[in-house]
Amino acid sequence: MAERGADETLIRSYLLGVLTDDEADALEERLIADDELYDAMLIGEEDLIDAYARGELDPQEAERFEARLTSPGRRRRAETSKFLLDYAEEAAGPKSPSDPGFIRKSEYQYPGAKGGEEKAVENSRRQSSRLRKGKLTGEPD
């Protein structure tokens, strides 16, 4: 188990270009011989790309990561990851009453419930009206 953690640290250092040439060569030989280690390297690379896209790398790591984005494929993967994370966040919608477009659960009746469709349409129109008027607090008109 400790070896796995050491390998993950070594792989991350490799992916960030921190290893010496001798250390990188030794790891590359292991990657060729060990399929599990190679799979761990691929997973580590995806994790690093996602961490970069989320802005979770410290400034030094982000700089090293960006320097390693020399191939169009790697750059595209990083851009795609950032796009997907942004899209998922946007699709999740507003999270608090101060966010534009926030709808309180009490204001929305699910379709299919008694009067649900009419109430949902009415609440949607009311919410849109509030947004147009700049009233984002969720208080009744």
Topology:
Layout: H1 2-15, H2 21-33, H3 35-54, H4 59-67, H5 72-92, H6 116-133
Features:
single chain; about 140 residues; mainly alpha; 6 helices
Question: How would you characterize this protein structure?
Answer:
This protein is an all-alpha fold and 141 residues long. The chain has helices at 2-15, 21-33, 35-54, 59-67, 72-92, 116-133. Helix 1 (2-15) crosses helix 3 (35-54), helix 2 packs across helix 3 and helix 3 crosses helix 5. The chain is elongated, with a radius of gyration of 24 Å. The model has no long low-confidence stretch (mean pLDDT 75).
Q: End-to-end span in angstroms? A: 60 Å
Q: What low-confidence regions span 5 or more consecutive residues with pLDDT below 50? A: none
**What's the overall average pLDDT, rounded?**
75
Order of helices and strands: HHHHHH
Give the amount of beta strand, in percent: under 5%
How is the biggest beta sheet arranged?
Answer: none
Structural class: mainly alpha
Individual helix count: 6
Radius of gyration: 24 Å
Number of beta-strand segments = 0
Describe the global form.
elongated
In which range does the helix fraction lie?
55-70%
